[in-house]
Amino acid sequence: MNLLIKQARIIDPNSPHNGKKLDILIENGKITSIRQSISSKAKTITDANLHISPGWFDMHVNFRDPGFEHKEDLNSGMKAASFGGFTGVACMPGTNPPLHTKSEIEYILHKSKGSIVDVHPVGALSHDLKGVDMTEMYDMHLSGAVAFSDEKNPVKSAGLMLRSLLYVNGFNGLIISHSEEKEITLDGMMNEGDAQSSLGLNPMPSIAEELMVARDISLVDYAKSRIHISSVSSAKTVELIRAAKRKGINITAEVAAHYLGIDDSALEGFESNYKVNPPFRTKKDIQALKKGLADGSIDAICSDHSPEDNEMKNREFDHAAFGIIGLETAYATANTYSGLNKKELVEKMAIRPREILNIPVPVIDRGQTANITLFNPTQKWTYSKSDIKSKSVNTPFVGTAFTGKALGAFNNNQYQVAS
Question: How far, in Å, CA of 256 to CA of 264, rounded?
Fold first, then answer.
């Protein structure tokens, strides 16, 4: 496919054209020319305040395939991703069966091969995600798994976590940890605090997250391995990660975009689309998350895209499933609420996720394969139901006014307009 992008501001710290406003010509999937002005018969893209960056990468999505295709499948998940501006995702193992052998890893790679969105499977850490028996992680690594996690099932056993960290050392593998001490959260529904007390819902105290993060920091320091903390939500967690990095411990972390714009007071209407794990916390926690992003304590911004069908979400709050979709709103939410500039957002949403997962980072330069996202960081728009490309509609953002929008994505010689 041939594409001419006119007068786009290039945001790519690895490109010699970073910060410049130029024409970019893509022919047969490769960038063949970058100049002040290019004439071509190729399909031409023009837009007000057009920006271009390496294709965005979401390192935490759930596509529910195999097993729960009525909530999401690979095709609908990839469609939601490309409409959100993402050209790559890391797909979590919470499927049925879980992605816990090389067969499931190869299924994901085979079914998504050649699509506009590169889908990189994350293998399960334990068999059936039960936290008992370690999986054959090396076999999955050889088949294409980019990391290992039990997704929202916290690894209760410190012994299993330590053995896993030691095991992946042999091939520089990465463990992704969901930090939650279940003996503390029990049947919790929301963050512990004033809002929770007034609503009478069972609490999910932030210390449940912080204890597990502290444990995992100690274990990874002992094992001299690598660990990534998923969906950071509390101020104390940010402090723990910041201190660990200063000590040289090999730890990285992410925050889901929705935690930057919503606090626990939003649950006052018992709307199940605000029920997430970890829960929305306080305004003080939100400020700490933003500071952690700004100073590098938190490396990446993701969507934590978690589709749920109406049967699981449209019920009494106590019985509703956790999770919201977020691929179509991740950039807009981050741009609207994070306080980061354009360069910093590209770093958090395109570059660092790939670096953490040891995936090659696209570069916008002549001769490079085109893997890009087009966006307008100042566009005002309101998210509506018609913008939802996922099979599921469990989002609290319908009707929300955002600043910043993905306009299109190009990867694997395919172009998708994000509208």
Answer: 15
Return the CATH number at 194: 3.20.20.140
Dist. CA 29–CA 57, nearest whole Å: 19
- What is the total count of domains within the chain? 2
Based on the fold, state whether residues 24 and 72 are members of the same structural domain: no
Mean pLDDT of 135-144: 98
> pTM for this structure?
0.97
Two tokens at 14?
Answer: 């690895």
pLDDT in tens, 263-301: 999 999 999 999 999 999 999 999 999 999 999 999 999
Q: 133 with 42, same domain?
A: no
User: Tens digits of per-residue pLDDT, 165-211?
Assistant: 999 999 999 999 999 999 999 999 999 999 999 999 999 999 999 99
Q: How far apart are CA 36 and CA 218, in angstroms?
A: 52
Question: Crossing angle of helices 74-83/102-112, nearest 10°?
Answer: 60
What's the first-to-final CA gap in the chain, in angstroms?
A: 20
Other C-beta atoms closer than 10 Å to the C-beta of 118 total: 23
387 is catalytic: no
Q: Do 130 and 265 reside in the same domain of the chain?
A: yes
What is the side-by-side order of every strand in the sheet holding 175-177? 123-124, 148-149, 175-177, 227-229, 251-256, 300-302
pLDDT tens-place string over residues 336-366? 999 999 999 999 999 999 999 999 999 999 9
The active-site residue, picked from 23, 264, 285, 304, is 304
Q: What is the C-alpha to C-alpha distance for residues 302 and 89, in angstroms, rounded to an integer? A: 9
